[in-house]
Amino acid sequence: ELKVEQNPLFLSMQEGKNYTIYCNYSTTSDRLYWYRQDPGKSLESLFVLLSNGAVKQEGRLMASLDTKARLSTLHITAAVHDLSATYFCAPANTGNQFYFGTGTSLTVIP
Amino acid sequence: DAMVIQNPRYQVTQFGKPVTLSCSQTLNHNVMYWYQQKSSQAPKLLFHYYDKDFNNEADTPDNFQSRRPNTSFCFLDIRSPGLGDAAMYLCATSREGGFHTEAFFGQGTRLTVV
Fold this sequence. Notes:
The complex is a heterodimer of chains A (110) and B (114). By secondary structure, chain A is mostly beta strands. Chain A is built from no helices and ten strands. Chain B is an all-beta fold and 114 residues long.
């Protein structure tokens, strides 16, 4: 089973600031998902990264994947309150299973 | 339009009474997954179907079973729910094999055991 670690677990940041969430995983993976979850809700797909060096951006969020380092990052630019949520990374193995990281609970403070 | 639909959204069951949760999809995806998410934890993969092939995670308790009668539907059966099985249950689908897609989640079923 893939082991997945995210850091930080909790992140409190001011509006307008930048920050990066890190996702490390233990074994070879050919793709990685990022999801957002609001309290009491299901998971909303943000990005799917399919190859080494992949970079995707949507609004204030940008995700990247380094398969050799087994590392993905989610960068937040000029945070706004609406970004407050829990963010999960989920790398997939060759057997089609994908396993979630511990999650990063983000609070953006006005 | 919802593409992955879970029913019911909320389910209350008695301790030890079998319960079935359902998931349907309109995406014609070949893979369907079931995850369990307890409060303030990450979703945990229970099992998945690749077409009709069932793949159980090694640490999924025997109390949890699944059925996939056709491409569109998948069921999660909990044979004897315990208090520790109270959680959000999430169904997801994806297309695998050559071209990978996003994995889409349903709205989840929140299970309460009394």
